[in-house]
Amino acid sequence: MLSxxxxxxxxxxxxxxxxxxxxxxxxxxxxIGGSAEYLAVIRHLDDLIAALTLLHRAQTPFLxxxxxxxxxxxxxGVSGLTIVNQCKAIHWPEHSQQNEQIVVEVEAGAPLAGFxxxxxxxxxxxxxxxxxxPGSVGGAIVGNAGAHGGDIASVLASARVWREGRVETWLADxxxxxxxxxxxxxxxxxxTPAVILSATFRLRPDTEGRAAKQARAAIQQRRRTQPTEKSxxxxxxxxxxxxxxxxxxxxxxxxxxxxxxxxxxxxxxxIINRGRATAADxxxxxxxxxREVWRQFGVLLEPEILLIGDWxxxxxxxxxxxxxxx
Length: 326
Ligand SMILES: Cc1cc2nc3c(=O)[nH]c(=O)nc-3n(C[C@H](O)[C@H](O)[C@H](O)COP(=O)(O)OP(=O)(O)OC[C@H]3O[C@@H](n4cnc5c(N)ncnc54)[C@H](O)[C@@H]3O)c2cc1C
What we know:
- This protein is about 25% helix and about 25% strand.
- By secondary structure, it is of the alpha+beta class.
- The chain has three domains: about 5-85, 2-Layer Sandwich (Uridine Diphospho-n-acetylenolpyruvylglucosamine Reductase, domain 2); about 90-225, 2-Layer Sandwich (Uridine Diphospho-n-acetylenolpyruvylglucosamine Reductase, domain 3); about 245-325, Alpha-Beta Complex (Uridine Diphospho-n-acetylenolpyruvylglucosamine Reductase, domain 1), CATH 3.90.78.
- The strands form five sheets. Strands 6, 7, 8, 11, 12 and 13 form a six-stranded antiparallel β-sheet that branches. A four-stranded mixed β-sheet has the order 1-2-5-3.
- It is globular.
- About 40% of the residues are buried.
- Bound molecules: flavin-adenine dinucleotide.
- Flavin-adenine dinucleotide binds near residues 85, 136, 139, 143 and 146.
């Protein structure tokens, strides 16, 4: 429960937008999930920093979302405060010499794909792999998003990070990037999450037009290989030396459904929402895929998406290794 004073301040910082029991599904690419007890959509960086400062002083926990494209929110919703970060200014350098590397600063709520497309249109190389990846720049840094041979770790220069009431500048190394992960993604339950406010990227001139070509190829490949229905992208991380989608397909699970959630016919590592899927439906398919892949191939699939909110059981996903020994 937020105090009246904090509610009033957050209402002002979200420009009159503090919601109560507000549906979160519209803020996710899955279009699934219950309500936030409190919801603030913040669009200006100064307002975001002011809100974080107030929350820190009041020792009030919160959940921060970017584009909601790498998460499954429970049907029970999220207690307490959820902030949606829509601070999205991009500061392109005014003058740059031809053939010179440039550094561009972008606010963390900016959509990654839009930022990447604009960089390609400006004749810059470095982000052509990202032109079709949904979600925000902040979320992409947290998960070290990547595709088509590129990833955030290879282009990020630094990030401005809010942590424990202070704004710090972290050079990319401090993110301790791993495959689809960073030290921010590895935050333990109970730890106050650090918030990425903005980031700088080093981009080079696309002298031979290669980046533009790669961007076009990336868009076409996605159209060919990925479903167009609502989803959260890849559900499981690829296990070392293999592909989660290949194993799920080999286990015979393509097209399996639970309610309105189905394992995509086009790409078995995607679960799609055909309209009214619930988080429980998605979780049932995730548990099925983990159980069958473990039983048939002895490979444990680890979720790439984050399971967020209040779940009926803990942990929300059963461990297939334990189930099989029962
Ligand atoms: C169709 C589809 C295709 C996809 N393809 C790819 C792909 O090719 N490669 C890939 O890597 N991913 C892919 N994804 C997954 C997703 O797009 C990325 O993981 C994306 O970078 C997540 O960003 P987001 O803003 O949506 O994060 P969210 O889902 O909003 O949040 C994810 C996590 O990041 C945290 N977070 C968000 N913003 C901040 C911030 N500013 N500071 C601190 N923490 C923050 C949240 O608290 C949460 O823990 C795909 C998703 C979809 C739906």
